Amino acid sequence: MKRLPVVLLWVLFLAPCTSLAAAPEGGELERFESTQREMGVPFKIILYVRDQTAANRAFQAAFSRISELNQVLSDYDDQSELSRLTRTAPSPKPVPVSDPLWLVLERSQQLAEQTDGAFDVTVGPYVRLWRRARRSKEMPSAERLAEARAAVGYRFLRLDPEHHMAQLLRPHMRLDLGGIAMGYAVDETLKRLRELGITRALVDASGDIGVGDPPPGKAGWTIAVVPLSHEGTPTKQILLANAAVSTAGDAFQHVVILGQRYSHIVDPHTGLGMTDRVGVTVVAADCLTADGLDTAVAALGPARGLELVEKTPGAAAFLVRPREEGEPEVFESSRFARYVIPSEPQPIEK
User: Which domain holds residue 145?
Assistant: First the structure.
């Protein structure tokens, strides 16, 4: 999906800690790990199975599923289902879409309604402009922003839930699922592994992390949260099982133009990169939810973002906003504490 490391993801860096390398339980299960570049980012899969043969079979099936989803959800691949749908704009009539694309579009539109458009997958025309601005370090012209604005707005994407069809109502619309599709791919990868009978697994799509049952002898998977930078000691460690965690913000991708720092995350209301530096970590029951929520919370800011998280069953969030002087501001939702390990941070596994 992401041939370049761009669009609507990352601000915090989450990495598995050394506790992931648990010893086999009674010699029956062994830990295996494989990393492969898919959807433009490294996908790391850690799983516990009985032997190398089972592990190889599982990795092949898992990475094959991710590749299949890229052919559906990519906005970089001109032949993906998403790109073909985009080329129908303005659609004279609704277009049938596959179940994976329907699920992601439906969840995206629900999130757009909840956030008054702060999360919006029709933001593609703005994203294309902002990618160019980040490369050139020059602001988009008012004329180009106005042209893009005419094609942006989640209400211009109409869904037919009875027939699983989609319709793009404005010319030059461009859908961008970068803020949510990676989470769906993580969920589907874990699902494929479960179909093979493998429940003790972790899938990490460069910070969008989904986990199944814990490693043998463990209560859960330990994830280190490092706010705003990949350097330094983890601020939090969280323990997860059959859950997901995702991040958003501008710690890794930003640009300074005329003295102003802009995020790679585009504000659908302005067409420009966001200027509020806030790092967001979201825990949820599944990675599709976590991935969509972290982008939405980053766009909404701490107050409205946490309100959205509190309304989402089972979700929790941790936000960090840097200050020019002194310690950064920290915000937590009411449920986040239940996931935090009350101990000193441990070194991150390399």
Answer: 1-350
- Spell out the SS3 assignment of the chain: CCCCCCCCCECCEEEEEHHHCCCCCCCCCEEEEEEEEECCEEEEEEEEECCHHHHHHHHHHHHHHHHHHHHHHCCCCCCCHHHHHHCCCCCCCCEECCHHHHHHHHHHHHHHHHCCCCCCCCCHHHHHHHHHHHHHCCCCCHHHHHHHHCCCCHHHEEEECCCCEEEECCCCCCCCCCCCHHHHHHHHHHHHHHHCCCCCEEEEECCEEEECCCCCCCCCEEEEEECCCCCCCCCEEEEECCEEEEEECCCCCEEEECCEEEECCECCCCCCECCCCCEEEEEECCHHHHHHHHHHHHHHCHHHHHHHHHHCCCCEEEEEECCCCCCCEEEECCCHHHHECCCCCCCECC
Cα–Cα distance for residue pair 15/243, rounded to 1 Å? 15
User: What is the chain's mean pLDDT, rounded?
Assistant: 86
Residue 341: left if φ>0, alpha if ψ -120 to 50, beta else—which one?
beta
Domain with residue 116: its CATH number is 3.10.520.10
Q: What is the mean pLDDT of residues 216-222?
A: 96
Sequence-ordered list of residues with C-beta below 8 angstroms from that of 344, at least 6 positions apart, any chain? none
Could you read off the pLDDT of 149-185 as tens digits, one per residue? 999 999 999 999 999 999 999 999 999 999 999 999 9
Number of domains, the chain: 1
Q: What is the pTM of this model?
A: 0.86
- Read off the pLDDT of residues 66-116 as tens digits, 9 standing for 90 and up: 999 999 999 999 999 999 999 999 999 999 999 999 999 999 999 999 999
More confident call, 268 vs 212: 212
* Confidence band for 250, pLDDT divided at 50, 70 and 90: low
